[in-house]
Amino acid sequence: MNITPLAIAMWDFSWLERRWPGAGYEDWDTALDELAERGYNAVRIDAYPHLIAENPTKEWTLFPVWDQQAWGSPDINKVCVQPALNLFITRCKKRNIKVGLSTWYREDTDNTRMHLTSPEKMALSWLRTLEIIARDELLDAILYVDLCNEWPGDLWAPFFENDPPQHAWGYWHTDTSMRWMRRSIEIIRDYYPDLPLCYSFNGDRVEYYAEKDLSFFDLLEHHIWMVTENDSEFYKIIEYSNSRFSPQAYKNLVSKARQTYQDRPLYWQGLLTDKIERLALAARTAKLPLMTTEGWGVINYKDWPLLPWDWVKEVCELGVMKAVSTGQWVAIATSNFCGPQFVGMWRDITWHKRLTHLIRTSQVNEALRNNPQAQKLLQRV
Q1: Quick count: other Cβ atoms within 10 Å of Cβ 354?
Q2: CATH of domain 6-229+270-378
Q3: Which of 140, 149, 200, 351 is the most exposed place for a label (fewest CB within 10 A)?
Q4: Which residues are within 8 A (CB) of 370 and not within 5 positions of it... i.e. 6 or more apart?
Q5: Which residues are bridge partners to 216 per DSSP?
Q6: Mind listing the pLDDT tens digit for each residue in 277-291?
């Protein structure tokens, strides 16, 4: 059985929140037609399970995560999750675009996400979400479910108290976290045994995949970049910190980022390819297929004066090529800027087509194709 990876885009919570005129997602048919034109056949979105569990049709008022990034809304916004979610999935299904469900547990005015005080409550919120999707016979359009984006961490999962009390991303491997993840997945799996389940992670500590027992996962959804948020050499040189509501981080990107990369491109590229090789090896040891829906160069970027896309696309292309070469990935993003709000990236249709063609004509390696643990996901690819 030959299996070719999916070319996946990350539309996060933008698919629902960026619907004002000119925001990129105000017309789903146009946005999805453009996605298909560029060669993508999968998309990852926020399903807002905590809001659906509370009241699926309520109009929710959401606070912005940031006003400096182009994901989601830069200010207070109002959304109704259902029936919008099912309508969006229906449009994807008509275009043979698979949908990966995830969540960033967006903060509303009542901070409803803080009701998720146990893995059981988290699982129940997802069960309610999946029940409504199944009611419209849309489960076959769902590629997988990621119970929490970049678990854990106080930005997306402030309701979870890790032990030791580590708030940084990447500390999913603690005993407390492992128990929470296992329990929540087991509950959902009892009801939906054929649906691939996981939590997504980021960070450079990929060796934990080989050391920890993640046999209750159906895949690894890992976000990997040339840089990392907290301890990146690149970010230290350019004096960048992710100030969510301050423009200073982008001022530093403008003044130093591109030149720092171009001064030593092979060095920075080598950091990325080394991470990809280590991640692929760890996944092979864990006997799990890989997805990456966010990568490969810098984490944050946008259309802005003196911020050209050329070097970002160069690094992202290298990341895609390296991931493809391992045969360990079953879904690959070209970047985490793959959406209509990133105009400078989005309008380069030739670039997207070249990379999605590379992804969709490559092969998942034979060991993974013959791995019984991976079959649940591979049957949906």
Answers
A1: 15
A2: 3.20.20.80
A3: 140
A4: none
A5: none
A6: 999 999 999 999 999
55 Rama sector, left if φ>0, alpha if ψ -120 to 50, beta otherwise = beta
Q: Which residues pair with 80 in a beta bridge?
A: 59
342 with 70: CB under 8 angstroms? yes
Q: Label residue 19 left, alpha or beta by phi (over 0 means left) and psi (-120 to 50 means alpha).
A: alpha
Phi and psi angles of residue 256, each rounded to the nearest 5 degrees, phi first:
-135, -25
* % of the chain with per-residue pLDDT over 90: 89
pLDDT in tens, 33-92: 999 999 999 999 999 999 999 999 999 999 999 999 999 999 999 999 999 999 999 999
User: What is the C-alpha separation between 335 and 12, in angstroms, rounded?
Assistant: 13
- Tell me the two tokens of residue 241: 């910190």
| pTM (2 d.p.) | 0.97
